[in-house]
Amino acid sequence: MTANELRRAFIDFFVDRHGHKEIPGASLVPENDPTVLFTTAGMHPLVPFLMGEKHPSGTKLVNVQKCLRTDDIDKVGDTTHLTFFEMLGNWSLGDYFKEGAIKMSYEFLTEVLRLPADRLCVSCFAGDSDAPRDEEAVRVWKSIGFRKHKRGEPAGTGQIYLFGKKENWWGPAGQTGPCGPDTEMFYDTGVDKCPGCDENGPSCDCGKYVEVWNDVFMEYNKKEDGTYGPLSQKNVDTGMGFERTLAILQDKETLFETELFRDAIEKINELGVMHDMIATRIIADHLRAAVFLLADPARIKPSNLDQGYVLRRLIRRAIRQGKKIGIDKPFTHEIASVFIETYKDAYPDLDKLRSDILNDLSEEEEKFSQTLERGLREFDKAVAGELTGLNAFRLYETYGFPVEMSLDLAKEKNIPVKKNLKRAFEELFKKHQDQSRAGAEGKFSGGLADHSGEVRKLHTATHLLHKALRMVLGDHVEQRGSNITGERLRFDFNYPDKMTPEQIAEVEKIVNKQIAADLPISCEEMSVEKAKDAGAIGLFECKYGDIVKIYTMGDFSKEICGGPHAKSTGELKSFKIKKEQSSSAGIRRVKAVVGV
Ligand code: SER
Fold it and tell me: Is any ligand 1 atom within 6 A of the Cβ of residue 177?
């Protein structure tokens, strides 16, 4: 099965055989959720619906979601770790639950993918003081023919294992929100057992057992005080690792041998002088992630802030690895071109944005190349025997070395690293950069799981602001990003110039006038086409499917959005812009508050 066939088979199975609606994948940058920088799992964009908001496409959904995780960036280069990956997922929003989900998963694995049933084993939640053992999931697996693994018995397929929270509990994706026990399905690759396999069963990470799918039963809500309460509805969130599954189906030892990576790796080998598999995989992984970030509707550009900083790190790390294997000319655009070819059928945006992606990469590569060489020469002198937060920060400031790169270099050169270096670096970075990377540290509360009054009001204020900006600056102004904490809203939009104080005052005046008018807010569901005809604004691409929700505020604003919102604009009391600044080339950023 090819990559394109696997995506299709998954969607068709749930749509045709089991009555699900296909929804598009969302942006790699979660909208309105400041608790994380990236979409790390398919459930992320669906949080409001897992919390009980009605989804316009119904209660049974299926999609392919692009995800990015940077926690394991240091491990990229081995056979399994990736930063960017795709996740295949089916969803029940208060519809079917454990029995339905498990039976469908099993049917897909054995009937559509034709994985031999005797190569599978599963795990379920063992229970703890927060939630009981998942007897129901165990019962369903038994009814299919699996049996409980007995303590002390050798690990084997056909067995059901019980593990604690670390293995068999998922979520919340941020600090709070939907979560629950899960059941995981593993494929036995057929390689010999390692000494730990019998003791650890499928949770052994030697590579014998590969987790292919995770069905999460989201029936709990983790609250801010750390306790778990019931969710208003019982949901299913499943995630199948796309790249891994593809490698299994194609009988490849690693996912780097599938067609997703094959051509890019060949190109890297062709450009490099030395053969270094780890460096090659890092380059491939990081540039693939960079391509998808640059093509994302959130329009991420390399920068020193938040998502842009992660993108910069990925590109710079790849460039350094390129140098290591002897590539002595700009090369990121060449590898990116290969990835665009590989992925353009599944992701036509890559092709459309080809020249932007390649230009952005080349620009960043040029910027970095100017200092890289010198930085590498000066590295030993700069660290003087020990890498510390301070000299790592200086390397960053002077030569643009991301801290992870200095750590890599120290490791290669056997230079000791000071304890807590990363923390010290972050502190200096933060001090220097008054815009802290709070998102990365998950410091904010709020996010989509936060349906508090404040968040509702700020959502509503965002619509009023969007419309007012278009009235003052022109109709070509469009949302490029939005982020709401419990305290403020942040709104990015395309506009080439700094706003004048008069323009800011005018926008505030317009918004406050709508607040004073206490406009009623209503919500309607309609097709994308109808919404466009009705003059609704908002991000139409990458949204919730064919049917969208439109929020109307009096005669003033009509915008597509997932909610939640205030009942009427009067609830906002007042609106004030606190800051207007540049976000990246051609994009302005406004921060504003309500009720002050
Ligand atoms: N959220 C779960 C995971 O990421 C299932 O989709 O594994």
Answer: no
d(CA 237, CA 406): 39
Contact of 523 with 550, CB cutoff 8 Å: yes
Q: How far is the CA of 169 from the centre of ligand 1 (A)?
A: 10
Whether residue 41 has its Cβ less than 6 Å from ligand 1: yes
- The verdict on the CB of residue 173 being under 6 Å from ligand 1 is no
Q: Is the separation of the CB atoms in 115 and 187 below 8 Å?
A: yes
Q: Residue whose CA is closest, atom 6 of ligand 1?
A: 239
Pair 274, 405 in one domain: yes
Residue whose Cα lies nearest atom 4 of ligand 1: it is 41
Residue 181 near residue 124 (C-beta atoms within 8 A): yes
Please check whether residue 234 is in contact with residue 218, taking contact to mean a CB–CB distance below 8 angstroms. yes
In ligand 1, the atom with minimum distance to the C-alpha of 173 is 1
- pTM value is 0.76
Say whether both 208 and 266 belong to one domain. Answer: no
Let me know whether 292 and 378 are in one domain: yes
9 lies in the same domain as 82 = yes
443 inside domain:
no
- Domain region containing 154: 3-256
Q: Is 168 close to ligand 1, i.e. is its CB under 6 Å away?
A: no
Residue 319 burial (10 A CB sphere; 0-12, 13-18, 19+): buried
Would you mind telling me the total number of residues written for the chain in this entry? 596
Could you tell me if 252 and 199 lie in one domain? Answer: yes
Residues 271 and 247 in one domain: no
Tens-binned pLDDT, residue by residue, of the chain (596 aa): 999 999 999 999 999 999 999 999 999 998 766 667 899 999 888 988 998 889 999 999 999 999 999 888 888 998 889 999 999 999 999 999 999 999 999 999 999 999 999 999 999 999 999 999 999 999 999 999 999 999 889 999 999 999 999 999 998 877 788 999 999 999 999 999 999 999 999 999 888 999 999 999 999 999 988 899 999 899 999 999 999 999 999 999 999 999 999 999 999 999 999 999 999 999 999 999 999 999 999 889 998 888 998 999 999 999 999 999 999 899 999 999 999 999 999 999 999 999 999 999 999 999 898 888 889 988 999 998 899 999 999 898 888 898 888 998 999 899 999 988 988 888 888 777 543 334 333 333 334 445 667 888 998 999 999 999 999 999 999 888 888 877 889 999 999 999 999 999 999 999 999 999 999 998 888 887 888 888 888 765 544 456 778 889 999 999 988 777 888 999 999 999 999 999 888 889 999 999 87
Question: Which 3 state secondary structure label does DSSP give 226?
Answer: coil
Strand 489-494 with 159-163, pairing:
unpaired
**Residue 504: which CATH number?**
3.30.980.10
**Angstrom distance (rounded) from CA 133 to CA 125:** 6
Atom of ligand 1 nearest to the CA of 216: 5
* Ligand 1 center from residue 478 Cα (angstroms): 32
Query: Does the residue 444 lie in any domain?
Result: no
For tokens 């897992």, name the residue. Answer: 50
Number of independent structural domains in the chain: 3
**Final residue in a domain of this structure, among 230, 256, 282:** 256
596 DSSP assignment: -
CATH of the domain at 113: 3.30.930.10
